[in-house]
Amino acid sequence: MDFAFRLPWRRDRASRPRPESLTPAVIVGLLRLADAATVLAAGGIAHLLVGGAAVDALSVTMLLLAVLLTLNLFQLAGLYNCDRLDARDFQLTRSALAWTLSAMLLVSLGYATATLETVPRAEAGLFYAFGLGGLGAVRLLLGFGIRRLRRAGRLICNLVVVGAGEHGQRLVRHLRRAGEGIRLIGLFDDRRDRVPDYVAGYPVLGTVDDLVAFARRHPIDQVIVALPWGAEARIRDWLEKLAQLPVDVRLCPDLAGHYAQQRGVSHVAGVPLVHVFDRPLAGWNALVKLLEDRLLAALVVVATGPLMLAIALAVKLTSRGPVFYRQLRYGFNNEPIEILKFRTMYVECCDDGVRGEVPQARPADPRVTPLGRILRRFSLDELPQFFNVLRGEMSIVGPRPHAVAHNRLYAELIGGYLARHRVKPGITGWAQVNGLRGEIRSLEMMRRRVEYDLYYIENWSLLFDLRIIFRTILVGFYAPEG
């Protein structure tokens, strides 16, 4: 069978199998070497310009520490993620932030060890500037090089799908949305009389036996077998035939694959397990989140302490009742917590301020005190929640905790609603800075809020949190009267 007329390219050189030594993993390794060399060069040039040619052990030690810190911070920032190597804005922004953090850590260490005094300020400033420029230049060259390689047909994963049934069709529709790093050639299936000739615009090129012959004449990097796990006999037969090919062969599970796209596979006691859901915050991410919450909450409490004292005194003097209103909410893992707010309603309307569950306030609500209207409008009533953060019950950024009645109601109406509790609730969140804050007026509004919350959980990063905090400072504190 002649497949040449069906291929999605025409160049003769692309129609021959070729070994690929320049893989994304190799590029990441070279990038790490380039980053280390850039930091060393920045330090060496700064020292030559200011300190002369003499080198002491302390300078060498600090320079090597700078390299170690930078490489680790770049790893934490996701700069060595193969999928983001050509994302220019991502690489430039994060490399600048990570390099700045590395410099700040070095300065702090220098102060703590009293060694910073031995380093001229001009040398330190030049080291930071050269490092910033050099690391940025590496990223620009990286993006340019990757784009050039891809235009030349390199760094592209040529793959075929084995299985043109319903499962394979769903996989192909997903692959169509993939980035530039994937080229889908077509599909193969032994059941030629039961599958269509084309799936989402891609041809069904033949049977699995045809694929074996096809792979010897055309460049294929990966074969994905897309069959339901119940088709064990066919899967075993197909894998025996594909074992002779010098390509990556992957098995795409049916139901699990639908829910576990791009989550990976691990092994337990030698048994391969498809990742369906991962803990949102674990390991280093959990530690970074904890430090972020505790440090920022402590700073806010210290900075706003006088303001909170003044608000507490005003609440006490302007209406009868306690200063704080404790609301029962559900936090991490759906465990009950009490969140603190300054009381903004008359005491007879909020159950004496203890674990009350009252209807949401509405515009011009007569239950709200005059002072309470001001506090609500500028979200000042939520300042005590930073104490919840210090106690470990909440985060600064996360899904906002809803009223108990709302939690029970929407858990039944919205699929995936309770997945919001996979992380701690937050004082502000991705949904809130996108305009979904305050009173819930419809089921659709709550559904959109949940979508934003789940997106935040699945895509958490320290920079994402800082972005939300920055947007909250700009637009998130003021709210319409209610």
Based on the model shown, name its key terms.
Rossmann fold, alpha/beta, two-stranded antiparallel ribbon, about 10% strand, 15 helices, six-stranded mixed β-sheet, flat, disordered N terminus, about 475 residues
What does this 3D model show about the protein?
By secondary structure, the protein is an alpha/beta fold. It has 3 domains: 134 residues, 3-Layer(aba) Sandwich (Rossmann fold), CATH 3.40.50.20; 128 residues, no CATH class; 193 residues, no CATH class. It contains 15 helices and 12 strands. The strands form 4 sheets. The protein has a 6-stranded mixed beta sheet with strand order 3-4-2-1-5-6, with helices on both faces. A hairpin with a 5-residue loop joins strand 9 and strand 10. It is flat. The N terminus is likely disordered.
Q: Uncertain spans, ≥5 residues at pLDDT below 50?
A: 1-19, 352-356
Helix and strand run:
HHHHEHEEEHEHEHEEHEEHHEHEHHH
Number of domains: 3
* Proportion of residues in extended strands: 5-15%
* DSSP summary: helix tally: 15
The best one-word shape is flat
Provide the residue-averaged pLDDT: 79
Assembly type of the chains comes to single chain
Number of strands: 12
Short description:
With 482 residues, the chain is an alpha/beta fold. The chain is 48% helix and 12% strand. It has helices spanning 24-50, 57-76, 88-113, 121-151, 166-175, 208-215, 232-242, 255-259, 284-318, 370-377, 385-390, 404-413, 430-433, 443-458, 462-476; strands spanning 157-162, 182-188, 198-199, 202-206, 222-226, 248-252, 265-268, 271-274, 324-330, 336-342, 395-397, 426-428.
